[in-house]
Structure prediction request, 373 residues.
Amino acid sequence: MRVGILGGTFDPVHVGHVALARAALTELNIEKLLVLPNGAPQYKRPRTDPADRLAMACMAMGTINRVEVSDMEILRGGATYAVDTLRILKSAHPDTDYVYIIGLDSLKNLSHWKDAETLKRLCTFACAAREGQVPHQPGVQILRTSIPDISSARIRQMVQSGQNADAFMPQNVARYVAERGLYLSDFSESTLRKELRQRLTPHRYAHTLGVAETAAELARENGLCAGKALVAGLLHDCAKCLSPEELLQYAGPAGADADEMRCLPVLHAPVGAYLAREQYGVQDEEVLSAIRRHTVGEKKMSLLDAIVYVADFIEPGRKPFPGLEDARRTAHQDVFRAAALCGRLTGSYAAQGGGRLHPATARMIQWIENGGR
Ligand SMILES: [Fe+2]
Ligand SMILES: [Fe+2]
Prediction:
């Protein structure tokens, strides 16, 4: 039996990977193609969790005839070396001939791979390349099918900066990326959660998770992809546990306006947007705007702004108070009307303590009541 191996980080898997898999099945005379998402690649820090990369690889290639997506490298954990994988496969299937499909750059660096000489004894290689790109080498087969020139790095950069990269991914993978908010920050979801758990008090962290889940739910109900709402929800209070001194120190660079500077409890919103950009790598202006506006709102707020503002108010962990259930019901009917209602409830609460409605909240309520959205 002859089996091809297509390994990779698949962060994310893209149309080039799919074309490569199909070319391998057509040209390499193999019975089966084993697709192996890496566990922990030696030189790269993946931007998504292994489970996400495995899920995307399955979506993109799991339904192609004669392709098997394997979790063996992900489950093995630790650094991923081709020679270790080949040793395991050969000891389980000694009669199988393996063809390892690699990129041109990897082929040129093959001598630097771990135990390269052993690896060469355990498998042959195939590489997608144009005529003349690869000097003839024994044991290396060249795939002639032309493969789209796209990289996972380029897709990650496009998604992070708010550009549409859907054309470079299989449709179901693009949807998965948007739904889960992958590549919107510099971190995988599990790392982002870990960072926030360290930065916030347990109460604030639980509230954060409640806001993220509620915002994602409201986004879906309103026809938006949940990912941006999820990430904005996770990061909305990232500056909430800073000291007043720290908040004031960041207020200038964060571009806090006069209204925000006058009110310390409001300052964590612009500072949070600033930290989301500077420390978490968020570049998407819609996500940053939702973080900035989550505390007091503003006129002309976007649907995502309104969703995060309302989610902050109604998340399931909120202690009951008069009007909360009404706000929750309204949120699932009309999120802007719910935002106005939450604004008015905040005003009533402030009035009880002798305070008054924040000017931005007053502008938001008036804008919504005048039909703005
Ligand atoms: Fe907040
Ligand atoms: Fe909050």
Remarks:
- The chain has 19 helices and six strands.
